[in-house]
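Box 3.1. Reading complex inputs
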Amino acid sequence: MNKKRRMLGTLAHNWQLWVMLLPALAWLVVFVYAPMYGLVIAFKDFKPRAGITGSPWVTPLLKHFAQFFSTNIARNTVVNTLILSLLTILISFPVPIIFAILLNQIKRSRIRRTIQTISYAPYFISTVVVISIMNVILAPGSGFVNTIYTTITGNSPLLFTSRPEYFRPLYVISNIWQSMGFSAIIYIAALTGISPDYYEAATVDGANKFKRILYIDIPLIMPTAIIMFILAIGNIMTVGYEKVYLMQNGMNTVVSEIISTYVFKSGLQNAQYSFATAVGLFNSGVNFIILLICNMVAKRTADISIF
Amino acid sequence: MAKRGNRAEGLSAAGMRVKGSLSDKIFDMVNFFIMLAVLICIAYPLWFVLVASFTDPEIVNRGKLLFYPTKPFLGGYQRIINYPPLWTSYINTIVYTVVGTLVSLATTIPCAYALSRKDMKGRRPMMFLFTFSMFFSGGIIPLYIIIQNLGIYNSIWAMVLPPAVSVYNLIVCRSFFDSSIPLELLEASKLDGCNDFGFFFRIVLPLSSTIIAVMILFYGTAMWNQFMNALMFMENQNKMPLQVILRNLILINQASNLSTDASEVIMRQKLAEQLKYAVIVVSALPLLVAYPFLQKYFTKGVMIGAVKG
């Protein structure tokens, strides 16, 4: 009884802090946890009029999941999602690190800062604009990429946006273009934090720049990199669907349809709410499990984890 | 003992010139070219689009444009000025960004402060609730249903409320308060009879101009560039933000037709591509022009987040 009174007492003592917390907490409940509860409709037959709680349970409970896995679309979208995410992570992940290491070697700080500022300009450009720029510069007649290509090789212009084989490379490249500078900021910050004594000692021992990078920069940047890597893996199944959606067109769906875009189309455009929610739940669930595994592996091997 | 100056020259302790200095020079040269390539890859597409928007479509369509407007042409911009849906959406975006940023500031900053206080009893569980949402979510369909149920579908609140709090930003803010507001300050003001509200509004906020600027930058950028939310939660074309109209114009070639006169049609074909460049410039320019001035806050914000995140 005393403990309860004491707890309420300290809660009341902080009441003003709780009031400050309240708007964000209310937001959390309404826009994060209520939708999480709404996931139950994956096991129901959702009827808008009945609402989430009023809709009847579907029999068998896993009907929507079974329905999804029985289609070809399931295999295609899962494969596309995995390939796209793995490609993105494997290729886009090292690039900011390498860039940061190289940039750190530039001696003149004014040049270094100018390069860095220009490098993250693309971050402020919206996805829509990035894809638009990409489309116009890759256009068959007017885009400079094709102009250069046709001038050099004399072949007819490459149809970048309509052929499926260009979709994945373009996706990864546009990803790198947009996020390299921004992602590099964290690594640059970590690198500037390295004590110059290390470099001095290494130079005294006769190490050149390359060796100094290999034996000082890279090991000391590893902890940051691993955490960023885990976070990136945590998003593996929810890979930027806005960009994929914008890059999709009738001709490349065989590689461009990923789980998230499929959820968007079947749920919001075709109003198959329960079904789409089930697919989405599958997506989030697998995502979460992969994240847990990566976190555990990192914890065991490098003693670094996010939780 | 190697002196400081020797470091740049790669001299070893014995003062002998080490092989390192030649490979260092090669390294620096290669680095120079790599950086140059990076700058070109980033800046040239942007420059190309800018120049193309001012150049005669004949030249652009035949791929003759490379570095500067060989035949200046303002028709694209003139056409845009006469295209109301673009400007309506521009205004929409400005409204959404301003309102959204204010809402986000009002929810995130007080909450971050409360969570930074060590004497806040429910701190750990609250933090867990917030961070968990970064790793697992209900997805877009349940969110859509909630928005319908709340009756905010197709209103400004459907644009502003769902993204109101970014847990990442919340953590960055909290780290800032953790490291910048000394406990002594709080204790001293409590002795003077100041309560939590008073301390927050009269002492913490004035000291937090940096983090507030960072939050305005992060939230403002996110809100300005919003696209998917509008597609999901808005219906009226005249409430759509800039990104949606942009996408309609450029990616799916859907512009409201203004006339069917034959010469108009030909003119419109000629201008169709032209329009794209001008529209891109008009929508990307504000942020691209503004960001260099705010970069001090930007890099600081990312670093604060990295250290404690």
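In summary: Chain A has a mean pLDDT of 86.
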